[in-house]
Amino acid sequence: MIYYYYANSIITNKKTRGQIDSINKKDAINQLLNLGLNPLFIRKKTVFDRSISLSLQETYLFLYELSNLIKSGISLVETLNIMYQQTYSKKIKFILRDIINELNSGKSFAQSIKKTNQFSPFITSTIYAGEASGKLSSILDLILQQIQTQIESKKVIEKATLYPKIVLVTLTMVIIISIKFIFPKFIELFSSYNIEVPFIIKLMTNIVEYIRSNLILIVSLYFCIKIMKNIIWFKSINEKIKLQFSFYKSLFQLKCSLEFANLLGILLNAGIALKDALIILEQTITSPILKKKIKISIDGIKQGRNLSSILKEQTILNGTLISIIEIGEKSGTLDEMLLNSGKYFEKLYSHRLEKLLIWIEPIVTLILAILVGIIVLAIMLPTFSLATQII
After folding, report:
1. Which residue among 7, 21, 62, 80 is the one 20 to 30 A from 353 at the CA level?
2. What is the pTM of this model?
């Protein structure tokens, strides 16, 4: 489990803070003392704590600047010192300071970044292999390509969902204004003439009243779901439900295929053995279903089986990718073939995703038209009804 700590160096008396992975609080304190740190404050990380890890964009910028400075021939320690002096981000300054301190104490770069607990197992393990093989610069470029792919996919989704979000906010405001200011006038008017209030007004008013009276319960439920989204079993159930829809299943398979091809290709290219690469991949992948399939693959590899024969028994990855893996195993160029197929699946996934997201705008427009129509009817019908009753 992760513990937050605030400590001062026994040698330099400088204050430092960060995270440490340990089995319990006592062990965490012992680890800090062994590192030459005197813990002033330590507590266990909970589900309510926000992660202080770097965002995907921050990780990309960090590694991009690091890669460029290394290519210019500057030593690693000097590179990190330049980055420390130039950055305005307190978060990155803190991370860089810890990395520099670890390097100065004789640790490798990979060990230093792992100590910060700010980077994924995939990044730390790949950098470790790249550093050991002398291919750190080229490995950083491959990592950057993978992160760039993830960032672009997120941007496509954010762009496509921006319009529905704006529409939802606008519609919510219209409904609130109608129920707060317009409908009460109609209800008052109908009551003054002893006329029954129309069903639409009653329905919408009752819904809002129900939400208002159960607001604490609804907000609590929202935060419970938000917290549970990070729990493995809940994520697994959520994925299984989504996979019942064919359009999501097709997209999910492509996403798993491109992640598997790209990440495994980079790890193998860095010189990591297949079994170890799959173990790192299992720790990196966020999908519980894909994690389970990779675990099965690891067990199969330990028994001496080929990766392609294990994957053929599963339906999580694209059939084309499994065929490519089989050819790569026979030719001894598995890493290159995975990286090349990863680029193909990136394009295919982006195309399918954009094609699916194109339908969002017209569907949202249709829903908006229906809801606006209901609101208009809720206002106009009572007016006509009232006029008829008076006449």
Report:
1. 62
2. 0.69
Q: Determine how many CB atoms are found less than 10 A away from the CB of residue 391.
A: 5
- Distances from the Cα of 137 to the Cα of 50, 63, 67, 143, 244, angstroms: 32, 10, 6, 10, 43
Averages of pLDDT over runs of 10 residues in the chain (391 residues) are 59 66 71 74 57 78 91 87 86 85 86 84 87 85 89 83 81 80 78 74 79 86 79 76 78 88 90 90 85 91 91 86 92 91 88 80 80 74 67 57
Q: What are phi and psi of 44, to 5 degrees?
A: -75, 140
Distance CA 342, CA 254 (A): 10
**CA distances to 39, 283, 285 from 50, in Å:** 22, 20, 20
Dihedral sign, Cα of residue 97, residue 100, residue 106, residue 110: positive
User: In angstroms, how far is CA 62 from the centroid of its own chain?
Assistant: 18
Residue 20, Cβ density class (10 Å: 0-12 exposed, 13-18 middle, ≥19 buried): buried
List own/partner pairs for 269-274 with CB under 8 A and 24 or more apart: 269/139, 269/142, 269/335, 269/336, 269/339, 270/126, 270/129, 270/130, 270/133, 270/135, 270/139, 270/142, 271/129, 271/130, 271/132, 271/133, 271/135, 272/125, 272/126, 272/129, 274/301, 274/307, 274/334
CATH code of the domain occupying 246-357: 1.20.81.30
Domain locations along the chain:
2-44, 56-119, 246-357
Counts of helices then strands in the chain (DSSP H, E): 18, 3
Alpha helices in 87-231 (DSSP H): 90-104, 109-115, 121-133, 136-177, 183-192, 199-213, 215-228
Contact assessment for residue 42 and residue 5, using Cβ atoms and an 8 Å cutoff: yes
Are 84 and 100 in contact by the 8 Å Cβ rule? The answer is yes
- Strands in 15-21's sheet, in edge-to-edge order, are 15-21, 2-9, 37-44
Q: pLDDT tens digit string along 113-170?
A: 888 878 888 888 888 888 888 888 888 998 998 899 888 888 888 887 787 788 888 8
Cα-trace Rg, the chain: 28
Q: What's the CA gap between 253 and 154, in Å, rounded?
A: 17
pLDDT in tens, 270-297: 888 999 999 988 888 888 888 888 999 9
Instruction: Determine the Cα–Cα distance for residues 345 and 317; give it in Å rounded to an integer.
Output: 11
